[in-house]
Amino acid sequence: KLLLSMYVILFIGLIFFLITVLVAVHFIPDEPTQLLVIIPATIVFLIAGFIALKFEVDAGYYECRKCHHKYVPKYSSVLWAMHMGRTRYMKCPECHQKSWQKKRISK
Fold this sequence. Notes:
Blueprint: H1 2-27, H2 31-58, E1 61-63, E2 70-71, H3 75-80, E3 82-84, E4 87-91, E5 98-104
Antiparallel strand pairs: 1-2, 1-5, 3-4, 4-5
Helix pairs in contact: 1-2
């Protein structure tokens, strides 16, 4: 349910952002006013992304490929880690080795 909520929040944030930018570009003639509309929309989209990432961190755990330790990382670790889908390059708190660690939902 948390992961579904994550996708819903991201989708709604993206749609809001795109509609706001399109309206600003096509219906507002002067650039300073466009920026006054686009900047808050960008901030709202970023906040939605940070909230969605928090949902991803809270759902499930990561498993180290080296020592198979299962853990829930800190939000900042997940935020700054390189990733491909739900696999992130992070340091294991148990063996302290960096590796591509896959997100697991259930044990």
